[in-house]
Structures are given as structure tokens and as C-alpha cells.
Amino acid sequence: MDDVDAVQAQIARNMLQSGDWVTARLDGIAYLEKSPLKYWLIAISFRLFGTHDWAARIPLALGTVLLCWVTARFAAWAFGPRAGLYAGLVLATCVGLFLFTRILIPDALLTLVIVLAMWSLLRALEEDEPHPGRWALGMWASMGAGLLLKGLIAAVFPLAAALLYLGVTRQLGLPKTWARLRPFSGIVILLAVAAPWHVLATVRNPPYFDFTLHSERGSYHGFFWFYFINEHVLRFLNMRYPRDYNTVPRLYFWLFHLLWLFPWSVYLPAVWKLDYRRADRASRVRLLALCWTGFILVFFTFSTTQEYYSMPCYPALALLLGSAIATGSPVLRYGTKVLAAVTVVAVAAIATILWLVRGLPTTGDIAVALTQNPDLYTLSLGHMADLTLAAFAYLRGPLALAGAALAVGALGALLSRSAVPVAALTMMMVLFYQAARLAMVVFDPYLSSRPLAEALLRQPPGRIIMGDQYYTFSSVFFYTNRRAQLLNGRVNNLVYGSYAPDAPQDVFIGDSDLARVWPGTDRYYLLAEGPAVRHLESVVGKAALHTVAESGGKYLFTNR
Fold it and tell me: Which whole-number Å values give the CA distances from 232 to 145, 219, 374, in the listed order?
């Protein structure tokens, strides 16, 4: 657990220990950019199961399972049980959902409440629905929960998709539409769910209302400005401060969905053969899914975006794919042929790599065989660029299992008599994800600083200095539950909160501060990444850095 995972978990622990469930803090610094519900859920998990890394993942794991189940139920209601099963399998086994739920980000939970809002919309509008009012209020409550998960997009996405759908179906101006959707009582429920935290966060982190459309280092405008203006308006316009993020090129953002929905993305052409114009329930759901997907993709085409930002449209695409697969259309066979070719080529590529690394040594951990590309690490897949041929020698087992998984898919695609070999593809992805899990275990020393944290806990007491920004060694904060000073770390996520009037003044230090305290009589510990060691030697002297532990290309030093 490192980077964003340990950050989220430590914020939750800080809330639990301090009793302040309004303002998130890291190392005593206000962290104002994110909504709190994910922290609350993790904190509740810690209260129930203890403060463990696995306990931090329980809310996301349960939410992801619930997301797949709700999607399957939605599809079964719309298209029948078989299509419901297929839609659930599509979502549960696609690459994107697996990949982006390995990290503690709230997007899967956000996606869950958006699916609930969309299904509730249609249930509220259904003529023979016995309880349309309950579904309408459920839609508004879902959006309220979403506002506490990831801000305004939780309401913007379902409302925009709903308005687009109502406009296309010519229901937008009908009085009975709004009578069923109950906007006035619904907004009251939405505000009852979401407003209290927003009001408290604004009151506790003044100034209250600042609408400045720019900022710079050293300025502080309070919670309202940072959360609403900076995190929503300026992020959309690619003007957010600080610029601690990257954006995926637009073409790649669209094309990556072929990967995120793999292996089922090969059947997307069959989606266009579906009927969207009839007045039956199935056609209405397909049309809503189309509006839902289209708005989200177009929205992020004009905004800054990460690879996982479009996750809220995965269930809509799963609904369409489940419906298409259930039809058994002959068009699906073309997708199966493409899938057969892709998996055969992938198996051949894996076999080639295994042959090339057959004699390479695997001394130490995988970090010694990786390159570093820090400019890419603001993207979710940035570390993929660190791989080298030598690194694959450390991944022989996971690679072999991945090859076997893809072989299962290839055989299923080549030998199946059905248009879509659903069972074979599901088995392929289950095995493939086991291979991915084993690969993550190999990468753990490189991506996580837990071994250094464990070594630090075995040492005599002393003050801790992190040789970079908070995120670099966030797992040390989590596994030791200690405060630390950040060497040249007043950047990125914590820089804004560091200028708040109540911010602690002893968190951030520079090279001159390190040179002053390191030779003293007090014991200090310093954590640093490999590339930074030479600079540290120039600051305090090589002989003054006593190595306590090394793991994954990172070091723990002491001055005594």
C-alpha cells in the first residue's frame, strides 16, 4: 500500500483518531480537494476490523461487487435474465474495472450510485411501476451520496444523461414526467444528504466565499474556493492549482476503452445493430445507456482526464454489450474471430518473452531491473513505462499463468460453436487476473515502502524526515502512524493547505535545515529514493548517511 492507497487510509485513520470527520488532514496539513464519504467508509471499516491495510479495501471491494450485481439486475429487468447475466459478467471481468479498483479511488463507488440513479430514473418513469415516488426519491438520494464521493460530477452526469434522454424521447416538457420525478422534494433529499458536510467544511476552513479564477503559490482562499472553483471549474479548464496531474491525449482516451472493456470490446460493433427506437422497455434502456455513455465521453473530451475518469459509463456499455450478446447476432462471430487472433498473438508474444528471459538472473527485487519515468507517474499506467526485458525475468510465473489464461480464451474462441464463448472468456479473465495479482506481489517492494516502515519500527525512537513529497513515502506514514518532516516536499497535494492560517509550521524543511539538524545529537531517520541519494550526500556528507534498510530502490538512513 503506497501512493494514493496509503494516503486515503491515513486520512481515514486521522479522522478516527482526531474525531474531526469534516476536514481531511495529512501530516497535520488540511487536504481539501476531495469529498469525504470514502474516508468515512474506510474509517468505519477500521473501527469494525482494526486499522489494517486490508480493512481499508473492504468498502471498495464490497462496493465493486454491489456495482456488478446492480448492473446485472438492471439488465435483467430491461432485457431478461440471460442478458442480465452477460451484462454482469462483462462489467465484472473487463480490464478497466479490475485495474482501477486495485487503487483506493472512489470511482467504482461513484459509478455504483450513478447506476442506481439511472435505474431509478427509468423505474420512476415506468407506467406500470407501482412505486414511482420511491424510485424518484432514490434517484435524488443516490446523487446526494455521489456528491459526497466525488463532487459535482455525481449530479452532473446522471442529470445531463437524463435530460438528454428525456429530450430525445420527447418527455422533457410533459407535466407527468416531472410529477413522477418529484424534483422539488428530490432536491430537498439531495441537499439533506450532501449539504451538511459542504457547509461545515466551508465554515471550518474560511474564508467562506471566494470566486477568484486564478491562484498562485503562497495564496490561500479557504475550502470553498479550493473545492468548488479550483477542483471543479479550473480542473475542467485545465487551469487547476497546483498542477500535480497529467491528462491523457484525447485520441488515446477514446481508444483506451477498447482495452478497458477487453475482452468484450470486440463485440461493440454488434451494439449498433440493436433497436433503440421502439417504445418497449429494452429499447428505452438501450437509448438511455447511449445518452449516458455519450455525455460522459464527450464531457471528458473537453476536460482534463485520467484513464479511469470514464468509469461511470462502463455499466452503460455493459448493458449494451449484455443485450447484444444475448441476441446471438451473426455480427458477434466477427468479434470472436478478432478475439481469437488477438489472444493467439498475445500467447505467442508471452512465449517469446519467456524464451528471451530464460537465462537472465533475478538478483534482489524487481526494482534493480526497472527504469524510472517520474514524468509519467501522474498517469495511472505511468509505471508500465518502467518495464524492461530484464524485469520480465522476475515475472516468469505471472507471465506463464497469463499465457495459459489467454490460451484458454484462444481455444474457446476457435472451437466454440456459439457466437460468443462466454464461459471461456470469463475463465480466461479470472485466470488472467490471478496472474496480475501475482505480478503485483512481485512489484510490491518497488511500489510500496512497507519494508522500510517495518525496518523503521524496529529502530530506536527518533524524528523522521521524508526525502520527497508526502505521496512518495505515504505507506511509511500509514504503517508507522507517525508524523514526519518533508524535505523539499512543499509541492503538489499539500502545498495549498500548507498556507492555511492553522497549518503546522514545522512540516516542510529544506536542504539547509537538513544540514543543520543531521549532525546533531538527536536521532533522525531519513527516507529517500535511489536517484536522490547523491544529492543528499552532497548536503550532509556520504559518511553521515548510515544505511538502515534498502528495498525497491529506496533507502532508510539514520544519522547515528
Answer: 17, 18, 26
How does pLDDT run across 22-33, given as a tens digit for each residue? 999 999 999 998
In this prediction, residue 340 carries a pLDDT of 96
Residue 216: the pLDDT is 76
Q: Is the pTM here over 0.90, yes or no?
A: yes
Place of cell 454491489: 66
Q: Per-residue DSSP letters for 57-87?
A: HHHHHHHHHHHHHHHHHHHHHHH-HHHHHHH
- Give the model's pLDDT for residue 374: 67
Closest by Cα among 222, 75, 40 to 145 = 40
Would you list the DSSP string of 7-31? Answer: HHHHHHHHHHHH---SS-EETTEE-
Task: Give per-residue pLDDT as tens, 372-400.
Answer: 776 665 566 666 778 888 989 999 999 99
Q: Which of 89, 88, 71 is nearest to 428 (CA)?
A: 89
Angle at 518 between CA 514 and CA 519, to 5 degrees: 135
Among residues 457, 464, 442, which one has the least CA distance to residue 528? 464
**pLDDT at res. 233:** 87
CA dist 2 and 57 (Å) reads: 13
Which residue ranges in the chain fall short of pLDDT 70? Answer: 1, 244-245, 374-383
How far apart CA 74 and CA 117 sit, in angstroms, is 11
Q: Tell me which residue of 106, 108, 99 sits closest to 437, measured CA to CA.
A: 99
Neighbours of 501 (CB within 10 A): 8
pLDDT of residue 380: 63
The position carrying cell 525496518 is: 455
Cα–Cα separations (whole angstroms), residue 74 to 68, 86, 286, 323 = 10, 12, 11, 11
* Residue that has been written with the C-alpha cell 515502502 in this structure: 449
Backbone phi, psi, residue 436, to 5°:
-65, -40
| Residues 46 and 16 sit within 8 Å (Cβ to Cβ) | yes
Cell numbers found for residue 465: 524526515
